[in-house]
Design brief:
Helix content is 25%, strand content 34%. It is α+β, with helices and mostly antiparallel strands. The chain has a six-stranded antiparallel beta sheet, with no helix packed on it. Strands 6-11-8-9 form a four-stranded antiparallel beta sheet. The protein has a two-stranded antiparallel ribbon with strand order 1-2. The radius of gyration is 16 Å and the shape is globular. The protein starts with 7 loop residues before the first strand and ends with a strand.
Length: 197
């Protein structure tokens, strides 16, 4: 198994993981792909893909990113597909939260994607020491604005590392690999505005 695409075995399947697994299986079936074909396209093993579709594992952010790239979706779009149609007003208690337990990454969909809108707003939290690398964007040319709310965050894009302190904002279009790292000592909390190309 490749580093960064590790899986977390879920003792009792989380309802979100169950819905997510079912949606991943639907997306593959819509395209008429076998697990082997999806494995070739994504670079993820057939067994990991199968276990994710059956909710035997909780997929990591890196694994979901690879699948989003293959399916032409952002992570927020994929996660919104397993939730009910989002309302115009999203109360704090109703904002979907997803956690990558392997990396210490928590993602709150503050303003989930909605048909007819190109932008969304996400709150990210990285635990001290968390390091997440994405080998490709879910959609080439995706526009991102990363505003650090607390702590410090290092974002690497196009082989350039940017150190961001609280209040700093990095604006970019994502074409290749990116990396989000929180060196600590505390967690990093940031707002991420995503705009579809």
């Amino acid at each position: 198994m490749r580093q960064g695409i590790a899986e977390v075995v879920a003792p009792d399947p989380d309802p979100v993981d169950t819905r997510l697994g079912a949606r991943l299986a639907e997306l593959r079936a819509e395209r008429g792909w076998t697990l082997g074909e999806l494995a070739e396209r994504s670079g993820v093993s057939r067994s990991t893909l199968s276990r994710a579709e059956r909710a035997e594992i909780s997929p990591t952010a890196s694994l979901l990113n690879r699948l989003c790239h293959v399916y032409g979706r952002t992570m927020s779009q994929l996660l919104s597909e397993i939730e009910a149609e989002p309302a115009l007003l999203v109360r704090s208690a109703e904002q979907p939260v997803w956690e990558d337990r392997a990396s210490g990454f928590v993602r709150r969909s503050v303003s989930p994607p909605h048909s007819g809108l190109r932008g969304e707003l996400v709150e990210g939290r990285l635990a001290a020491g968390a390091d997440i690398a994405y080998d490709r964007p879910p959609l080439p040319g995706l526009e991102q604005h990363i505003w650090v709310l607390a702590g410090a965050l290092e974002v690497t894009a196009q082989d350039i590392a940017h150190h961001l302190d609280a209040g700093d904002c990095l604006r970019m279009r994502v074409w290749g690999p990116t990396r989000f790292r929180c060196a600590g000592p505390g967690e990093a909390r940031y707002a991420l505005a995503v705009v579809l190309p």
